[in-house]
Amino acid sequence: MATAFTPFEESRAVGEFKEDLNRILICSDCREDPPNLIEEYSSGDMVCGSCGLVLDRIIDTRSEWRTFSGDDNGNDDPSRVGDAPNLMIDGDQLQTAIAFDGKGARNLAHLQNKVNQDKGTKALMNAYRDIQALTDSINAGSQVGNTAKHIFKMVEDKKALKGKSQEAIVAGCIFIACRQTNVPRTFREIYGLTKVSKKEIGRVFKQLEAFLQKMGGEDAVAKATGYGQQYTGTAATTADELCTRFCSQLGFPSPVYVENISRRLAARASEVSDLAGRSPLSIAAACIYMASYLAGHGRSYKQVSKAVDVSDGTVKTAYRFLYAAKDVVLTKEVFPEDSFAEVLANADKVPSS
């Protein structure tokens, strides 16, 4: 039979300590075997369930779950930690936040925020919020948003582009971030996000590129661009890069196949002199229109123009020049694989207008 002991009995280990599994804890009053013990984690006590005698102190090894959600929305959001620190904001970010509860809490919170947050931090937070909202509106992804935030922080830290509106700087940062992360977005799309003129955004964009090239070699530039230690300017968005986005919006049975055809047409269309200088959007729209018929799933001008967000007349004009160069773009040199035999077979079925 196992030997019983109480917390008040003292024993000294001889030699190396080894856990003795034959020794069990029982109540010194009840002497029940097996013991009826209850672990009260709230108070940290080991209690006899029969008589209520406190036998020992225990340590609560459970996870410390706390709720950091707002008190006003009633959501239950348990977490073991608070919010993660924002690495793009200077400081340890361990300030106290005062809720708007109770008499005079609003005034107290206003004073506390005035002490803890300077104007620079507020400007950064406002810019980060605008960048996140704008990148989400064009489905650019988190990588573009984080890159744009890094670039904006570099500009803010160096006090560059003084006198320029924050909205124009934000638009320029997003445009550069899209190019550096290979997320094709046209200047027209970025311009449509803001109320700033095209001329102003163009000036800010050129100044931002010059600033980043001047700052080349610093770690911050590598973090912002993700392309090594030296910032390098990128070319304008091409038509074949835009075909990937727009083909998925037209509901083709095999959008990847149509996308592949349109990308090959767009790459070859750069050799067509009549299409030189035209917008990549109009060239991409014309190539997608032709590719839809080459794949056997023709789409109308209206459907293509709606997906690309250009007018019907723009698509028709660009397609007229593309069709005139049909003998140049529809060749075995452009489609050498056997998987594209259907493309060359359908070349005569492509509408002339």
Automatic annotation (TrEMBL):
GO terms for biological process: transcription initiation at RNA polymerase II promoter; transcription preinitiation complex assembly. InterPro entries: Cyclin-like_dom, Cyclin-like_sf, TFIIB, TFIIB_CS, TFIIB_cyclin, Znf_TFIIB. It comes from the Eukaryota. Keywords: Metal-binding, Repeat, Transcription, Transcription regulation, Zinc, Zinc-finger. Gene3D superfamilies: 2.20.25.10, Cyclin-like (1.10.472.10). GO terms for cellular component: nucleus; transcription preinitiation complex. Transmembrane segments: none annotated. It holds the Pfam family Zn_Ribbon_TF. Belongs to the TFIIB family. PANTHER family: TRANSCRIPTION INITIATION FACTOR IIB, TRANSCRIPTION INITIATION FACTOR IIB-RELATED. This is Transcription initiation factor IIB.
